[in-house]
Amino acid sequence: MKPPRFQYCAPQILxxxxxxxxxxxxxxxxxxxxxxxxxxxxxxLAAPAYLIDINRLSELNYIQPEDEYLxxxxxxxxxxxxxxxxxxxxxxxxxxxxxxxxxxxIRNRGTVVGSIVHADPAAELPTLLACLDxxxxxxxxxxxxxxxxxxxxxxxxxxxxxxxxxxVEVHFPWVDARAGWAFMEFARRSGxxxxxGAAAVLTPGEDGTCRQAQLAYSGVAGAPVRARDVENLxxxxxxxxxxxxxxxxxxxxxxxEDMSDIHATAEYRRVLVAELTRRVLQRAWTRRRG
Length: 290
Ligand SMILES: Cc1cc2nc3c(=O)[nH]c(=O)nc-3n(C[C@H](O)[C@H](O)[C@H](O)COP(=O)(O)OP(=O)(O)OC[C@H]3O[C@@H](n4cnc5c(N)ncnc54)[C@H](O)[C@@H]3O)c2cc1C
Description:
The chain is built from twelve helices and 14 strands. Helices cover 34% and strands 24% of the residues. Bound molecules: flavin-adenine dinucleotide (FAD). The site of flavin-adenine dinucleotide has 28 residues, from strand 2, helix 2, helix 7 and strand 10.
């Protein structure tokens, strides 16, 4: 399969990339790791007139710890994060999530930011960003805006990114040192996009009950979904068997009615979500400190 014709440019500095984006507007696409864009081009599901390759923008190749979050620049590969000693020590949940993405060859090329912008509802990283209330930093020629995950993700492969904007950085908030966390998913084969996935962070309070619960799912709707009702149920509990049963049943509601496709019916996804909820909460709670 061959892609449609396009013009290719590979700027060396961010300002030039943003200027190009402004000039080409809706006719241009950013090329990062190419792991989603190139198949789309080859299948002719996308036909941009210009490709702006950002792989030479070394100024965006950083993994930077900030006070409240870990900042990851737009050219950082998924495997770079996976191998980072800093991330291993300070954000192990992010590594647990990344290891579920495709295969090593995909992660060696695919970028963290590219996965967020591509916004596949089955993808792992958007789900983690939603779970942690993370943000995406968007820049255009002469300005920037920082969008929270719940504003950024709009629907199936759809985000709030405007044609003249580039996502330059993503912010994954730190997880409280006492919190337990987990990411789990159901996939037919290891490395496949999962049918459903779930990320959980449970922060215990001084009295041993759950003080804060964060729970998000992939593969249940057009965009990642936070299970607010389940989170509310968990707060103040000790995640005993009865609460886990209730949480599992309540979580079924995160699956949209229109989530039946060739891979699974919506009802099958609900069954998976109920079981996954129980398992991911148990694992997260077991890992808490305090
Ligand atoms: C066989 C296979 C299996 C895979 N399995 C999984 C999986 O299990 N889970 C998973 O999550 N993903 C999976 N992927 C996708 C992979 O994670 C991609 O790397 C990711 O979706 C996109 O990142 P990328 O850097 O390759 O972006 P690209 O493919 O280069 O770009 C993807 C889209 O994002 C836009 N874009 C990229 N970066 C920016 C930016 N900085 N600013 C603005 N727009 C930008 C592009 O214009 C394009 O529209 C798989 C891919 C393959 C080929």
